[in-house]
Design a protein that fits this description.
Layout (H helix, E strand, L loop, with lengths): L2 E6 L3 H13 L3 E6 L2 H9 L5 E4 L2 E2 L2 E2 H7 L6 E6 L4 H9 L2 E5 L4 H13 L1
Parallel strand pairs: 1-2, 1-3, 3-6, 6-7
Antiparallel strand pairs: 4-5
């Protein structure tokens, strides 16, 4: 089954880097959006295997979007350079894995292994 991933990040280079890493792991569909408004539109057109969300977006906080996702929804990933205990703890509370920018391919592969195997 082809995995579908949504990347929400206002930094184009971060979106491109994550897209390349996801595509290198196997066949998948990747959609990129730069803000929460476009992310909500894309989520409505789901289903999604995983959602990668930056925290600092031009129209709000990425955590607000992750909080709105149903508990049985897609896998959640916080993809941010805002690395501290508070953001890691909040991500964990929301059931999200934390990916630190710049992206490490090995970390991504380890986090996605259960999704790809399903």
């Amino acid at each position: 089954m082809t995995q579908r991933y949504l990347i929400i990040d206002d930094a184009r280079i971060s979106r491109l880097r994550l897209r390349a890493a996801l595509e290198a792991l196997g066949t998948c569909e990747v959609v990129e959006v730069p803000n929460l408004s476009r992310a909500r539109e894309a989520l409505a057109a789901g289903p999604w295997s995983g959602v990668f969300c930056d925290l600092l977006l031009p129209d709000g906080d990425g955590f607000s979007l992750l909080e709105s996702l149903p508990s049985d929804g897609p896998a959640r990933f916080v993809y941010s350079c805002r690395v501290n205990a508070e953001t890691r703890d909040r991500a964990k509370t929301l059931g999200a894995d934390f990916l630190e920018k710049p992206l490490q391919d090995e970390t991504l592969a380890t986090l996605l292994r259960p999704l790809v195997a399903a």
